[in-house]
Specification:
44% helix, alpha/beta, D-Maltodextrin-Binding Protein, domain 2, six-stranded mixed beta sheet, 2 domains, 420 residues, disordered N terminus
Length: 420
């Protein structure tokens, strides 16, 4: 199946990322060691193995560094590397705010062969700077077998009221279902990206046409829709109320995913990127994604986009080697096998016919085919704002230091007083 990354929908959302100019420079001394720094620890081992094999074939040494699993961990490491004059040759940006930070050193990739094979590159002023790592999506992942035992149809989970009733029913059946909690979700300081990236996006785009930035632009201007924020706060509180409290307040990525994998929770607040983890854990139960219930009215769709982009430092000692690495990932059998089979990702390139086998990736593709998807808009806000300003607010609610009314007040104040 040719990827419906004629997701003109996705393209529509990412086409809005068009701002200041970039320039292209770069010398090419092929054969110099290349360093790639990326933010997906779940594919770190597979990417390192692919890098080793690629090095043997190409004759170009490459080192893979995976910095992820903590809020803004990659951004902080890149800042430290830049200050030390030791930037990686290839690294990851997650959207407009990251691009603005690094645009002065980014290589113009417009002429690369892979550009014609994707509809979702990162563009600025008509030039291509970012190679889409994959297509990803999330809603609320569910264990279909446990929902069936409880007599709950996942197709009914499209709004706040439906989730509230379902969560209460599941909570009352914990012993019968063998679960510890209804939801596996993390909101600890080191895991704040779960709430400040993924859950936060429910406020920004849920129920809106793909690419609609009306809520984003209003919040960037300090204008808060109190009704929408209140509905969103209800959703956050509901998730927190029925989450495993240890995982919610102190759990790491592995703990969060493992609770779902071992069927100790019915729902998981993560995206299709956990497929490799679930495969390693030997999971066999049926699963899929249901929409986020952050609205009182039905929102029948999940959040889908190109989540991150590889960019090349134009000052790299081996620009040609870095360019070859990216092209080989798209056009060689080994590269395609890595993207789809080894890393379990949904490819962002139409020439790749392989399809992921992971159940959550398959669910994302089903939502895409149905055209029921919403934008990723969280990256219009800086990483520092999300992690340092919003993160503590979510954490205070998760740890019962504040109530829902205070959460709404603090969120409102954060948008009105936003400085970054």
């Amino acid at each position: 199946m040719k990827r419906i990354l004629t997701l003109s929908l996705v393209l529509l959302g990412l086409a809005g990322l068009v701002f200041a100019n970039g320039t292209q420079e770069g010398s090419t001394s092929k054969g110099s060691p290349i360093v790639l720094m990326q933010n997906k620890p779940e594919i770190g081992a597979a990417l390192s193995a692919y890098g080793d094999a690629w090095s043997k074939t190409s004759g170009i040494p490459i080192t893979i560094k995976s910095i992820g699993g903590t809020s803004n961990g990659l951004g902080q490491q890149l800042q430290a590397d830049y200050a030390a004059g030791d930037m990686p040759d290839i690294f990851v940006i997650q959207g407009l705010q990251d691009y603005k930070q690094w645009q002065s050193i980014l290589l113009d990739l417009s002429g690369q062969k892979w550009v014609d094979q994707t509809s979702v590159p990162f563009k600025d002023n008509g030039k291509v700077y970012g190679f889409p790592v994959s297509i990803e999506g999330w809603g609320l992942a569910y264990n279909a077998d446990l929902l069936q035992k409880a007599g709950i149809d996942p197709k009914s989970l499209v709004d706040y009221g439906a989730y509230k009733a379902a969560f209460a029913k599941l909570d009352a059946m914990k012993s019968a279902l063998g679960i510890n909690a209804v939801v596996s979700m993390a909101a600890s300081p080191g895991m704040s990206w779960v709430v400040t990236d993924h859950n936060f996006n429910s406020l920004l785009s849920n129920g809106l046409p793909y690419g609609d930035l009306s809520v984003v632009n209003a919040l960037l201007a300090g204008n808060v829709d109190s009704s929408r924020l209140t509905q969103y706060a209800n959703w956050v509180q509901l998730l927190f109320q029925y989450s495993d409290k240890a995982i919610l307040t102190t759990g790491n990525y592995d703990a969060q995913v493992n609770a779902f994998a071992t069927q100790k929770t019915v729902f998981l607040h993560q995206g299709n990127w956990v497929d490799p983890n679930l495969k390693t854990a030997g999971v066999t139960f049926k699963m899929g994604f249901a929409p986020h219930g952050s609205m009182n009215t039905p929102t029948d769709g999940i959040f889908v986009a190109a989540p991150s982009f590889y960019v090349v430092d134009k000052n790299s000692k081996d620009v040609a080697g870095a360019e070859q690495f990216l092209n080989d990932m798209v056009f060689t059998p080994a590269g395609q096998d890595f993207i789809v089979n080894k890393a379990g990702m949904i490819p962002a390139f139409k020439n790749i016919d392989l399809e992921p086998s992971g159940p959550l990736s398959k669910s994302v593709e089903q939502w895409m085919k149905a055209g029921k998807i919403y934008s990723w808009n969280q990256y219009y806000f800086s990483g520092d704002f999300r992690s340092q300003v919003l993160g503590p607010i979510y954490n205070q609610l998760a740890t019962n230091q504040i109530d829902e009314a205070k959460f709404i007040q603090l969120m409102t104040d954060a948008f009105k007083n936003r400085k970054n």
